[in-house]
Amino acid sequence: MWKSALLFSSLIALAACTNQPLPQQDNPQNSSAHSPGFSGEQQRLIGRFDTSSPGKAQFSWPGSALEFRFTGTRAAITLASTGDLRFQVEVNGKPQDLWVKAGEASYELASGLPQGEHQIRLTRLTESFAVVSSLLSDPVVDGELLPAPAAREKRLLVIGDSITAGYGVEGPDQHCHYEAKTSNQQLTYAALAANTLNADLHAIAWSGIGVWRSYGEKTPVNPSMLVRYQRTLADDSNSRWDATAYQPDAILINLGTNDYWEGSVSDDYRANMKTLIAMVQQDYAHKPVYLIVSPMLGGAQRESQKIILGSLTGKGVQLVDLGKIEPQDGLGCDWHPNKITNQRMGDALVARLKADLNW
């Protein structure tokens, strides 16, 4: 499903800038040295953020976002990152890429806007790997920060692998490999469905991961999703997420592609999936859990996964098949679902959640 997480983390630094990226702000008056630090006031955080250190908010899961409203014509913010990352900036609903370099700097999020009220969303698109990003300041505007945008009434949590992280979704075909410029969590089935449903989404996704073993492993070596699911920062073993901080209306689990990388699984796959379901149900009692069949598995592997997942249904746990990659869809990088497949899966998920939850 992927080559190696270590290889990918090095490839992130090679990613090129596309889609008319926003410029880095070089004004020393807006540097982190002059920033009073991040307070979180009049801002909304979506995703898992570590705010235990004064003056900053650290995050690493793809899809983590900041929203704020202001009056004025321009906005900037100070960010830090342990590696190069791709972000998306939405200004009044219009998206644009922002490429963040390793280190600390102030970045311009918008400029030249007509005088008036505006809303900005800053979303991390790049996967976790070992790269941690941080908000080091509140938004700096030439007018006034307004009360934060209201939280959406509906909430979703999705737990998955590279499919849910958006690996290669913007790639031209199966022959390309991992690059930050072709991977985009906001174009995944889960993000598309959340946007259609006007729901907040927490995406806990890591390429190559399984619930039992990761891609390329005969037996488990790296932390499985049973371990990473519990973390605020995906690659920090000392990081723990407080499940009470975000209570989803439904939980989606899309894991198994990597467990099946050799074509079959041991009984450990079912046992570990059962454990993950129990962990989720302990964190979010009485909330529906959906087990998603992998769109990358076919033939006997697909049927095997459906049987195993089906055996775990009941007591608020349901099986959902959103479809698989079809020949006419084309492919994303390294045989991953592209935008066409993700859109169809997202539409199917919307229909299922609307029917089940009266949304």
UniProtKB/TrEMBL annotation:
Supply the source organism's classification.
Bacteria, Pseudomonadati, Pseudomonadota, Gammaproteobacteria, Cellvibrionales
Q: Which UniProt keywords apply?
A: Hydrolase, Signal
Q: Please name the InterPro entries in this protein's record.
A: CE2_N, CtCE2-like_dom, PCW_deacetylase/CE, SGNH_hydro, SGNH_hydro_sf
Write the protein's name.
Answer: SGNH/GDSL hydrolase family protein
Q: What is its EC number?
A: 3.1.-.-
Q: Which organism is it from?
A: Cellvibrio fontiphilus
Q: Which domain of life is it from?
A: Bacteria
Query: GO terms for molecular function, please?
Result: hydrolase activity
- Reply yes or no: does the keyword Signal apply: yes
The Carbohydrate esterase 2 N-terminal domain sits at 46-149
- May I ask which residue range the UniProt record assigns to the signal sequence? 1-15
Keyword Iron-sulfur (UniProt): no
Please list the residue ranges annotated as the SGNH hydrolase-type esterase domain: 158-339
What CDD domains does the entry give? Endoglucanase_E_like
